[in-house]
Design a protein that fits this description.
Blueprint (H helix, E strand, L loop, with lengths): L6 E6 L10 E7 L10 E4 L6 E9 L3 E6 L4 H4 L5 E5 L5 E4 L7
Parallel strand pairs: 1-7
Antiparallel strand pairs: 1-2, 2-5, 3-4, 3-6, 4-5, 6-7
Length: about 100
């Protein structure tokens, strides 16, 4: 069986500065190994607000990204969902209860 699904299993840290710049570490499975393969975004959902997280490093099981300083105050402290987009244009779903920032 060929499994091409990707999953997010954790996000660390779960809090950061409202001014941005926090380095997030996202763990999971089946991530791409090129930094442009898996863009990351923090979202409140419903189009209320979002912030980009610029990928610094990536491997099959871990992504590190730095949260944009211009838009973080929109999502800071509001339980924003961390969304990892896949190269195949699908979203990697969180498989744990602790994937919010």
């Amino acid at each position: 069986t060929l499994d091409v699904n990707a999953y997010v299993t954790g996000v660390s840290p779960s809090t950061g500065s409202i001014y941005g710049g926090t380095l997030l570490t996202i763990t999971g499975t089946n991530f791409g190994d090129v930094y442009t393969d898996n863009p990351v975004q923090l979202s409140l959902g419903g189009g209320i607000g979002s912030a980009d997280c610029y990928v610094q490093t990536t491997s099959a099981t871990e992504i590190t990204c730095r949260i944009d300083s211009d838009t973080t105050s929109v999502v800071a402290g509001q339980g924003a969902e961390v969304i990892v987009f896949l190269k195949t244009s699908e979203e990697a779903k969180c498989e744990d209860t602790v994937c919010a920032f």
